Amino acid sequence: MKVKLGLYIIVSLIFCLAPLSAIANTKVDATTEFDATTEFDAITEVNDTVSPYGPAQTFKKLNQNVTAYTASKYKADGTLRYTSSSKLPQSGYVAMKKKTVDSTVPYGSIVMTPQYIKNYEGINLNSYYVQDTGVDPSLSDYAIDVWWGFCRTSAYNSSDTRLGCSTSDAAYTSALQWEKPTMDLQFVLAPTP
What we know:
The chain is of the alpha/beta class. It contains four helices and six strands; from the N terminus they run ααββαβββαβ.
């Protein structure tokens, strides 16, 4: 009877504690702050991204500009356009000031916005990877420029004025209409090799 009761208790503990360990694995680290609007999946994604390197370094910057940018898929010389981190532009990428990327927020870091932003391509996100530079120097130091989508395939008029876009391109007009709202941004720094 004692053996059966002991076995029953061990099996019960395993089934009771297993779900708790799964929940515990979704935390980024003890110092990370997320508000009630943060999606549970975003926390899991951050954990998966940084877990091999240990706890993530996080911080928050208040009242930072959030702008939008677009470009032609090909430059005037016919070559594909890449971000400054040598990636093809895509939804989920943002640009920051070069001095900020060089000193504080390296490529591959994650930026989370307090609300979802729907770009020209119809993608609705609230977390982004820093993969580009080129933010207007007059904006806040931790401003982000959200990739809005390609304005066209080939550069307008064989030039790279406005990153190959025409002022009449729908994506370009849409990016300008986003304007420059300010938001409180949460940063999760990419590990340095």
